[in-house]
Design goal:
single chain; alpha/beta; Rossmann fold; six-stranded parallel sheet; 36% helix; globular; Nucleoside-diphosphate sugar epimerase
Length: 348
């Protein structure tokens, strides 16, 4: 059985992906949580192989016997993972999840998604959606736990999952109000109900606007930090269909994992054709749009590439299109990732 080190990611989304991959592999895994020297940036900016970017205590935790496999994400962890591989005499395999910053030759395997525009290479798995821990078993458990809350709601139960600002796209009060109206109209026509949840990135003004425009039978959850009774998994488990704001690739990935029909809500400007809706203004969004168009591509990400692939594969439709049926791929993104990692280790 291989020895695996998970160099924990420092951002929540990436942390969830690497942990989900480690769990899906099904092998024992040792997690290393590092502390970083904030003002030391050259090692990861220049793609070096060194421990200079972490503090002495973190460096001391990385000792032989060296692992067979290192899994990680995040630019600050790249020099560390290359250093571990070097100390192993090149035997350890380095798997990077998400956006790679160094040249692709410096990784044994990269598992990524279209928004990062990573070229198709032999050591790259370009999945449609991000890795996650939403499994049939977790959904079934959530259904049992949240039955007293959701079971009595009229069917079809439509989940509405709201995110927030992302790159050039803004989820402000205007977009939130439009989402509330469209979702309420859909539920009314189908004589169903809504299960609504905001997220950590939903601004207070958007939360208020969304809540003000929800009509008919519904459950509304405003995201609360540290709340152990967050109903998110229960909403996924009880939903008959889902509407997800298209700013969050992670939430779209989790929604599609339910196997139910998924609609993507356009915040405004997410499609090439004009939608006629007034966009919420955000200076940061304007500046990000400028960066995407004129500056070095790796500095930005283009989530519309994910939307296009997801829609083209039948995994989701836009919220103003005719509701389609859920289309499960023959092999999930997680299965692609696990197979690629196992194949990599077979080559050792």
């Amino acid at each position: 059985m291989p020895v695996i080190w998970l160099i924990d990611a420092y951002r929540a989304g990436e942390r969830g992906q690497v942990r989900a991959l480690a769990d899906a592999l099904g092998w024992p895994c040792e997690t290393k949580t590092l502390r970083y020297r904030k003002h030391v940036v050259l090692p990861h900016v220049l793609g070096r192989t060194t421990l200079r970017g972490i503090d002495a205590g973190s460096a001391a935790s990385l000792q032989a016997p060296w692992p067979d496999l290192v899994i990680s994400s995040g630019v600050r962890n790249e020099p560390v993972c290359r250093w571990i591989r070097e100390q192993s005499g090149g035997r350890a395999r380095y798997v990077h999840v998400g956006r790679p910053w160094a040249s692709l030759e410096s990784f044994d395997l990269v598992i990524t998604t279209p928004q990062y525009r990573v070229p198709e290479e032999s050591n790259v798995v370009n999945n449609t959606l991000t890795l996650h821990s939403v499994t049939p078993e977790r959904l079934a458990q959530a259904r049992r736990e949240w039955a007293p809350i959701f079971e009595a709601l009229p069917r079809p139960r439509i989940a509405v999952i709201a995110g927030g600002d992302s790159g050039p796209f803004t989820f402000g009060a205007g977009a939130a109000a439009r989402l509330g109206r469209e979702a309420s109209q859909l539920a009314m026509v189908q004589e169903g109900s809504l299960m609504v949840s905001t997220s950590s990135r939903t601004r207070p003004a958007a939360v208020a606007a969304l809540k003000d425009h929800i009509r008919g039978p519904h459950y509304f959850y405003p995201w609360t930090s540290g709340d152990l009774a967050n109903p998110y998994m229960g909403i996924l488990g009880w939903a008959d269909r889902l509407i997800v704001t298209a700013d969050s690739i992670a939430m779209l990935s989790e929604a599609c994992a339910t196997g139910k029909p998924v609609r993507m809500f356009d915040l405004g400007g997410m499609r090439a054709e004009p939608d006629g809706n007034r966009r919420d203004f955000r200076l940061g969004g304007v500046l990000y749009g400028f960066m995407m168009r004129w500056l070095w591509k790796p500095l930005s990400r283009d989530i519309t590439r994910v939307h296009a692939r997801l829609r083209g594969s039948g995994g989701a439709t836009w919220s103003d299109e005719l509701l389609g049926t859920a289309r499960r791929p023959a092999q999930t993104d997680m299965q692609h990732a696990v197979d690629a990692v196992r194949h990599l280790l077979d080559q050792v």
